[in-house]
What does this fold into?
Amino acid sequence: MAALVNRVRHAFYMDSVALMRISAKVSSAAGVKAAALMIGSTANKNLLRNADLLHADSEDAGANDLIVAVRADDDGAAVEAVKTAETLLDAAGANVGKASEWQPKSLESAIREFPGANLALISVPGEFAAVEAHRAINNGLNVLLFSDNVPLAEEIELKKEARSRGVLMMGPDCGTAIVGGVPLGFANAVPAGGIGIVAASGTGLQEVSTLLARNGEGISHGIGVGGRDLKQAVGGITMLMAIDALDRDPATRHIVVISKPPEPAVAKLILDRVEKSPKTFTICFLGVDQLEVPRNASLVGDLRSAAEHALAGKGIGWTGRPDPLALAARIEPGRERLQGFFSGGTLCAETQVFCKRAGLAVASNVPIPGVEKAGGARPDKAHLLLDLGEDEFTVGRPHPMIDPALRDRMVIEACDDANTGVILLDAVIGFGAAANPAEALIAQLPPANARKAVLIASVCGTDADPQSYSRQRQELSDAGIVVAPSNAHAAEIAIALVAAIRAKRP
Amino acid sequence: MTISTERGDTAPSRAAYRLLSSEIRVINIGLRQFAANLEARKVPVINVDWSPPAVSDPKIGKLLAKLGG
It folds into this structure.
């Protein structure tokens, strides 16, 4: 019979990434069905309760307490797993103690100790994030709010306050930015150059900045504005301020704007502002191929086209692109299903754009307009593109860019799926990302000659990233995975391959 | 919901340019790894040893933040 064991550590705090790393280790222990280590905030207790991980005795735990929760096959396995978690917590706590010198306990004392600070990078749990961001803005700091789960009303209030104080409020749920060459959050090491990027999409910024870098162009600044900035209720406050700032910046020659399709009234606000600029623009409203834009701007519908336009029209090619017909020859007839597993949400969306353009009906957990929502009763042959960074996949688990274990498991399962012949995936590298996203997957894959599906990957990163683009690409390629030079190329060859397999029908 | 029409090259927007033209000095609150990444690149950063506030009601927390507490 399944057993649930909770242990509460009072007055104990460790950041969520550190806790999730321990959760991942404990979850993989023998006999463990599910495990989570979380501070006892109201939101976390709800998550634990919904996952059948909260014991009645832990209901009184507060935000200053840590709950270690394990559900296992039996009491013995659960108790053993909790012990493992406690050992790992002690070890992690000891390391933190050793590595760190004195640290301020609050933003205010940090400001006193660190004069001239101009940016607060905030990644505390969502329910506390707005309070810290208010503090930072009130003290005249620009903010990069990495945290998600910040209510929209809070975002609007924070952004209005930031505007009135003349500071940038990047986020919430802003995964990345590059300010003055400094990568913040999840970002890549890109050279300095003349292209400024403003993005309401984290991996959109990463994909375009790294495509530019790998094709010889540098970035002046990459400003993330948060995925909801172009919603009507927010009105693009941060994007408009960012365009103003880049307009004044002598290092910025050309500006790339990246977003999901905004609501028309907000698109008009942005485009009206663009028209007033003396600089040239690339406007990428993902999936929007037709829209009137000012004369100093060009509209593109995908990330690769955005990079190509910013490269003054230089095409990004693929030397050694494999022939889809030759790839299809490896696949048994009937295996026509495409499955894609993405750690980058915008990369999943861009793939949908290409499928939609090609007339390939796909479903996704985060569908773009015109694409079917995944879930419910669907035929198991339907093409599926999943954004694994969505909440449904990240509760109590690190984001797939930090730990791709779930992605790896899903890819392995897809290899065994009798209908699947084409598997798409991304490897997003850079600061904050997994040390080697390819390694564990490759170790678990069947040998290339025994695989029933063709795997196609793209790597988002540069050679200056800690994981190295070339090294990551080589490892994937050595394992028999087709490595495309961009997510767009990966999508295109996957679509061509599906068509080639279909053409083999008797 | 109405859309803000306050936009353009206003004084606050000009002020935001200051961030782009200055050396970045970061206060990190939350994931320690972000501070470590910046330290490794020799970017000036201070890490706040953050833990959830004793007052866990966000409304009271916000009020305190506004009062500078």
Notes: The mean pLDDT of chain A is 92. The domain at 324-502 of chain A is CATH 3.40.50.261 (Rossmann fold). The longest strand of chain A covers residues 420-428.
